[in-house]
Structures are given as C-alpha cells and as structure tokens.
Specification:
With about 260 residues, the protein is α+β, with helices and mostly antiparallel strands. The chain has two domains: about 20-100, Sandwich (Immunoglobulin-like), CATH 2.60.40; about 115-255, no CATH class. Helices cover about 45% and strands about 15% of the residues. It contains eleven helices and nine strands. The strands form three sheets. It has a four-stranded antiparallel β-sheet with strand order 3-2-5-6. Strands 4-1-7 form a three-stranded mixed β-sheet, with no helix packed on it. A two-stranded antiparallel ribbon has the order 8-9. Strand 8 (about 155) and strand 9 (about 160) form a beta hairpin.
Length: about 260
C-alpha cells in the first residue's frame, strides 16, 4: 500500500512539474512557404514535434530550456524559455525566410518532337513554366477545387444581403485558418499522388532520405506553382521541378542541420 502511495505521489509531482511552451510561427512572407513543416525541438529534453498546418505548436518545456525551430525554408532559431512564456499560449515565434524562388529562364529555342515523355525529359532545369505549359498543352485551370467563399455583401433578388458567416470569419481570423487548411489538404493530396506515381525508390535514388521525401515534395510544391500540372494529371512533367529544386533542397538540408534535428 505504501508503494502505491509513493507511486501516486511521484506521478502527481510529475504532472505538476510538467509545463508547456505553446504558440504560433510567424512568417511575414505572404507566399506558400508556410506549407513547409517546421520542426520544434526541446534541445534539453531531446524531444521534437511538428507544427500544424496553421503554424501552431505545443511542446513540454521548463524555464531555461532551449527550444529550436528548424525548417527547410527558414533560418534556424533558438529560443530560451522563460517563466513568462510558459504562462501564455500566445507566444509568437518569427522565422526569417532563408530561401526564395529561383528566377525562371526563358527558352528561345525548343522544338517539340511530339513525344511528351521525350520532350519533358529533354528540358533542362530552370526552364520557363509557361513554355512547358505550351509544349504539353495544359488548359488554364478553372477554380482551385475548393468551395467558393461567400461574399460579404451581395445583390440578390433585387436587394442587398449580408453573409454573416463570412463577416465572422474575417473578423475572427477563421477565414485565414480555413484557407490555410484547404491549401494544406490540397498540398498533401498532391504529394501523395506524386509519391504514388514515382514510387519511393525514385526519391531514394535521388539521395533523398526516406523520412524526408514528404518534406522534399513540400519544398518543391511551395516553391513553384504545380497546380496546373496536378489538375491535369501530368505527373511526368513534375520531374522538371523535382530536378530543378533537388540541388537547392540538398544544400538547404545540409545548411539547416535538419538531419541532425530529426535524427537526434
């Protein structure tokens, strides 16, 4: 009986001592870079979590612990935890973008042979996306596959109407969260389709570690507009962008020390 009481007391003390560092990642860049995973690591506890689609995080920590934020598109940032940080769930951690899209190069001389696969594979990394669309005859997409957002004001049946839901979303910030969730879900669907098309072995031959295949595809997806290719089912053409961003990703992976964060 005494041992049970001691065990219960230890568990109670452990729960009382458990503290959580929570907050949200801020990226001032307005592009789709926020779609990339951000690894949050308590260096003292050697514990790592991932932020969610909205950039929110929550990790066990105590005053004096060092929490590291790492991603493939941002500079690494270390935060020393204070008692004040643990008393709120509204901590904002700003990360600086360390990577921007490479400039596209216009192709002046290219004659398609009529064989799609041959033409796609013969293109060089960095060629202009619009030229590729012309070669493979992609139609311009209509819509983005998500439900349309109701307008705040509209004229219907000869009168003025208000969308209460939309007004609430705009005021509360739910609109931004919903939009991010939709973008995140579309990205995940696209990544899964690309992985199924090429197979895991394809990426391993490119020297992408198995645990980083999704991370690599997130990087490619957020660095260029692949939506027209995905919508048209032209996964063969995605190889151009994979080859374009592969050396950049490999350099960023090495410089960001992300491998050390994940394997620790």
């Amino acid at each position: 009986m005494r041992s049970v009481v001691i065990l219960f007391a230890c568990l109670l003390m452990s729960n009382l001592n458990a503290q959580v560092f929570s907050g949200e990642i801020l990226l001032r860049d307005r592009s789709s870079y926020y779609l990339n995973e951000v690894y949050v690591t308590n260096l003292n506890e050697q514990r790592t979590i991932l932020t969610n689609f909205n950039g929110s995080f929550s990790i066990n920590a105590k005053p004096g612990d060092v929490v590291r934020f790492t991603s493939i598109v941002t500079d690494r940032k270390d935060v020393v935890i204070t008692e004040k940080m643990l008393q709120t769930s509204l901590n904002i951690v700003e990360l600086k973008i360390a990577y921007y899209e490479i400039q596209e190069v216009v192709i002046n001389k290219f004659k398609p042979s009529g064989n799609l696969k041959k033409d796609v594979l013969s293109l060089k990394t960095g060629e202009k996306e619009m030229k590729l669309k012309t070669i493979i005859g992609l139609p311009e997409p209509k819509g983005d596959g998500t439900p349309q957002q109701a307008p705040v004001l509209s004229l219907a049946d000869g009168g003025l109407s208000f969308s209460i839901d939309t007004i609430y979303d705009l005021i509360s910030g739910d609109h931004k969260k919903k939009q991010r969730l939709q973008n995140y879900e579309k990205m995940n669907a696209a990544i899964n389709n690309i992985k199924q098309y090429y197979g895991e072995e394809y990426f391993l031959k490119l020297k992408i570690p198995k645990q980083f295949i999704d991370n690599f595809l997130q990087f490619v997806y957020s660095s260029d507009d692949l939506r027209p290719l995905i919508a048209a089912g032209n996964y063969e053409a995605v190889a151009i962008y994979i080859e374009r961003y592969l050396p950049i990703y490999q350099r960023r992976l090495q410089n960001s020390k992300l491998m050390e964060t994940v394997t620790e």
